[in-house]
Amino acid sequence: MTDARYEKLEQLGSAGAAPQRPEDAVLERVENPARDGDYLIRFTCPEFTSICPVTGQPDFAHIVIDYAPGPWIVESKSLKLFLQSFRNHGAFHEACTTMIGQRLVDALAPKWLRIGGYWYPRGGIPIDVFAQWGEAPKGLWIPDQGVAPYRGRG
């Protein structure tokens, strides 16, 4: 017997490749199974990769996504494939980080979402990008994102 809440999931359990472009990626969602209270969901992608739109060289980041779900939660395989689709995507750090957050907000309608993009140095300068949508629910425990500031070889 198939649960109706999960009938539209097409990526979970299938051998799907990452889309070639983030615009082609589908973020799948399921009903929030714990809507009676507020809680935090965290996804960490320590090996995020995109392409510099000017030089064509790879850029690397540690991405941390925190959100307090509303009616939906993201299906994790679809999120993984979405993040992998940036590997051939040319965009600046700011555009990649905020695009990820906005796509999640559009798909999930969370009560609150924040994203931290901790980018490794380009031209000798690390760039960290942070964005937030909404206000965190009162009383929600929000741990530090746990990514140390860039220190080089110090």
Automatic annotation (TrEMBL):
InterPro entries: GTP-CH-I_C/QueF, NADPH_dep_7-cyano-7-deazaG_red, QueF, QueF_type1. GO terms for biological process: tRNA queuosine(34) biosynthetic process. The keyword Cytoplasm applies. It comes from the Bacteria. It catalyses: 7-aminomethyl-7-carbaguanine + 2 NADP(+) = 7-cyano-7-carbaguanine + 2 NADPH + 3 H(+). This is NADPH-dependent 7-cyano-7-deazaguanine reductase. GO terms for cellular component: cytoplasm. Its EC number is 1.7.1.13. Substrate binds at V74, E75, S76, H93, E94. Transmembrane segments: none annotated. The active site is at C52 (thioimide intermediate), D59 (proton donor). Pathway: tRNA modification; tRNA-queuosine biosynthesis. It is an enzyme of class 1 (oxidoreductase). Its main location: cytoplasm. Keywords: Cytoplasm, NADP, Oxidoreductase, Queuosine biosynthesis. Catalyzes the NADPH-dependent reduction of 7-cyano-7-deazaguanine (preQ0) to 7-aminomethyl-7-deazaguanine (preQ1). PANTHER family: NADPH-DEPENDENT 7-CYANO-7-DEAZAGUANINE REDUCTASE.
